[in-house]
Specification:
Blueprint: E1 12-17, H1 22-31, E2 35-44, H2 58-68, E3 72-76, H3 82-95, E4 100-102, H4 109-122, E5 125-127, H5 135-144, E6 148-155, H6 170-177, E7 191-197, E8 204-214, E9 218-229
Parallel strand pairs: 1-2, 1-4, 2-3, 4-5
Antiparallel strand pairs: 6-7, 6-9, 8-9
Helix pairs in contact: 3-4
């Protein structure tokens, strides 16, 4: 990256707060133009088996980040100790030269306030590349830039199990737009996604084995096996 004087400009090193989903991926993609993405930070359950954000198996996220050719740090935590463990992980990253954190929030004010506060207290800059942008613009950009993601979790009170495994494409956008009280980007947790291909992945993720599981509040596409394959 060059400055206005034509001289090479130093890129700040950053981590991405990683869920494996579309918003984190698009934020990472945009941030790569201005930051050196050094690693992904993923908060996981105390037993280390699933991510705190979307309940994805941690081994699936490791396959995904292998396809990205980026290291992932999976920090174990309970919900009660989440902030302490997050700050401890970011503090260690800062000691390694990380200066900024990339977050995929769109417009939940309490989320922005939290990430800005905890990053400020640790001494890194919080960056939110897709903050307050229109849902349809973000989804269209995600699709047009060549990303591919599958729906891996839905809220039972708004979406049925038939949505599990669907690809984020124009048909998905159209179908979701016709529904009432559903956020197009899933910002209220209506659905979560797993990115399996796109410009930030050197290769793609192929899902080998999965099962639909209905829980009390959510239904999930439980991915038991996946692999990295050439695009």
């Amino acid at each position: 990256m060059r400055g206005s004087d034509g001289m090479e400009k130093h890129k700040l090193r950053a981590f991405v707060s990683w869920s494996g989903g579309k918003d984190a991926a698009l934020s990472c993609y945009r941030a790569m133009k201005h930051y050196e993405i050094s690693c992904l930070l993923n908060m996981v359950s105390e037993d280390g088996l699933t991510s705190r954000a979307h309940g994805v198996r941690t081994n699936v996220l490791r396959v995904q980040t292998d396809a990205m050719e980026l290291p992932i740090i999976q920090q174990k935590t309970s919900w009660e100790t989440y902030e302490r463990e997050f700050k401890a992980a970011v503090s260690r990253l800062k000691q390694d030269g990380i200066e900024a954190g990339i977050f995929g929030d769109i417009d939940l004010a309490e989320h922005r306030e939290w990430v800005e506060r905890v990053c400020r207290e640790v001494g890194v800059t919080a960056v939110l590349p897709i903050w307050e942008e229109k849902r349809d613009d973000l989804l269209r950009e995600f699709i047009d830039e060549g990303f591919e993601a599958v729906v891996i979790s839905v809220r039972n009170d708004v979406l049925g199990t038939e949505w599990l495994g669907r690809i984020i494409d124009s048909c998905f956008m159209a179908d979701l737009s016709n529904m009432e009280n559903v956020d197009l980007a899933g910002e209220r947790g209506e659905y979560h996604t797993l990115v399996v291909s796109g410009p930030i992945l050197k290769k793609k993720v192929r899902i080998i084995e999965s099962t639909n599981i209905m829980q009390e509040e959510r239904s999930i596409l439980d991915i038991a096996a996946c692999e990295v394959v050439d695009k």
